[in-house]
């Protein structure tokens, strides 16, 4: 496959001149430009973004790191970034956590992979790094934007929703519907966003008179499988609760599946509330009431910040992302518990 160096050599010009002709930017004499175009045609050369942008040192590509390539949470983020970049002829390269090592090691490997591949900057969706990892990137950290977590060293480059407020909204939604006996399926206990949303949830419940000792979360891992598994664990003592709060929609849908299998009527016997308001919530059965986090806005504004830094654009950048509750069919006002109690022989 022919390269820009082959074009320059055949046309008898320097690499910079060939690049200016290919990119259409910069001054080149008509005769020289004609020689370069003839060389392109003879060689069947197809210019890449990297070749077109050699004068500026920009590849017009953004790296994106996500921890996993499963579920319905990360796909919309990738779609949003890709759609935004394509409007200006830019592209993304994606890396995700895989291979040996813990989440931190995988994040470091993925981000370094993207940097080594020559991307102009990186958008990372991770809370697994340490501040010393950011420091170790040196000057390269200037072109790193993080979604869904704040790092002190690069705080202006971080974009996240207020998950503590999101957790409070979840609790308030259930309290307003009369629920005070609430089971909880949380996410990974070490992840900061999970800690924040459960902290907000507990604080709001306690503020409304619910004993903190009553608010114990079963730990999931944000997957539907863990939601199913922890719903299974709750079945023997389900009569103690009128509602279930899950720290993301994936786990909520997994829990709904297990509860349906067990013959539990939602929301007549148990209300179920999710978090994130992903597309999963819209198409679950019943449709899932969920705390809406504006992930599209978080993503676009983080990406805009990075593009402004890299390419000198003046795209709008906002930093406040309001959470809300999207009401659907899975949450109802508290009702009598006779059906569930009879199932467990407790009447």
Indicate the CATH class of the largest domain: Alpha Beta
How many helix segments? 14
Number of strands: 11
Q: Provide the helix percentage.
A: 40-55%
Task: Spell the H/E element sequence.
Answer: HHHHEHEHEHEEHEHEHEHEHEHEH
- How far from one another are the termini? 78 Å
Q: What strand line-up does the widest sheet have? A: 7-6-8-9-10-11
- The residue ranges in which pLDDT falls below 50 over 5 or more consecutive positions are 338-342
Q: Tell me the Rg in angstroms.
A: 26 Å
Number of individual domains: 3
CATH-defined superfamily of the largest domain:
Response regulator
Q: What percent strand?
A: 5-15%
CATH architecture of the largest domain: 3-Layer(aba) Sandwich
Main beta sheet: 6 strands, mixed
Question: Structural class per helix/strand content?
Answer: alpha/beta
What is the typical, i.e. mean, pLDDT?
A: 90
According to CATH, the fold-level topology of the largest domain is: Rossmann fold
What is the general shape?
A: elongated
Your description of this structure?
The chain is of the alpha/beta class and 347 residues long. It folds into 3 domains: 4-52, 434 Repressor (Amino-terminal Domain), CATH 1.10.260; 61-160 and 296-320, Response regulator (Rossmann fold, 3-Layer(aba) Sandwich), CATH 3.40.50.2300; 163-288 and 328-343, Rossmann fold (3-Layer(aba) Sandwich). It has helices at residues 4-11, 15-23, 30-43, 49-52, 74-86, 103-116, 131-136, 163-176, 192-207, 224-234, 249-261, 279-283, 295-311, 338-343; strands at 61-66, 91-96, 121-125, 144-147, 158-159, 182-186, 217-219, 243-246, 271-276, 289-292, 324-326. The strands form 2 sheets. It has a 6-stranded mixed sheet, sandwiched between helices.
């Amino acid at each position: 496959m022919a390269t820009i160096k082959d074009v320059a050599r055949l046309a008898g010009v320097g690499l910079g001149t060939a690049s200016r002709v290919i990119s259409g930017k910069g001054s080149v004499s008509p005769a020289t430009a004609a020689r370069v175009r003839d060389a392109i045609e003879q060689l069947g050369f197809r210019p890449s973004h990297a070749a077109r942008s050699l004068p500026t040192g920009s590849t017009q590509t953004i790296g994106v790191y996500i921890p996993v390539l499963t579920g319905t949470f990360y796909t919309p983020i990738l779609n949003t970034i890709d759609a935004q970049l394509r409007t200006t002829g830019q592209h993304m390269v994606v890396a995700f956590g895989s291979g040996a090592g813990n989440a931190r090691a995988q994040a470091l490997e993925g981000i370094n992979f993207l940097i080594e591949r020559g991307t102009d900057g990186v958008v990372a969706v991770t809370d697994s790094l340490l501040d010393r990892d950011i420091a170790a990137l040196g000057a390269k950290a200037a072109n790193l934007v993080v979604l869904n977590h704040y790092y002190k060293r690069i705080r202006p480059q971080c974009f996240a929703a207020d998950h503590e407020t999101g957790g409070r909204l979840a609790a308030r939604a259930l309290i307003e519907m009369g629920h005070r006996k609430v089971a909880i399926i949380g996410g990974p206990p070490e992840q900061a966003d999970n800690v924040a949303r459960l902290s907000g949830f507990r604080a709001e419940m306690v503020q409304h008179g619910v004993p903190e000792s009553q608010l114990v979360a079963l730990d999931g891992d944000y997957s539907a499988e863990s939601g199913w598994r922890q719903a299974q664990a709750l079945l023997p003592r389900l009569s103690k609760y009128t509602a279930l709060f899950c720290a993301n929609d994936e786990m909520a849908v997994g829990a709904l599946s297990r509860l349906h299998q067990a013959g539990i009527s939602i929301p007549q016997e148990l209300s179920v509330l999710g978090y994130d308001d992903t597309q999963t919530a819209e198409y679950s059965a019943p449709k899932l009431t969920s705390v809406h986090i504006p992930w599209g806005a978080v993503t676009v504004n983080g990406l805009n910040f990075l593009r402004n830094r890299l390419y000198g654009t003046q795209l709008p950048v906002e930093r406040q992302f309001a959470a809300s509750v999207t009401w659907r069919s899975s949450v109802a006002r508290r009702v009598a518990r006779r059906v569930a109690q009879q199932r467990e022989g407790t009447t």
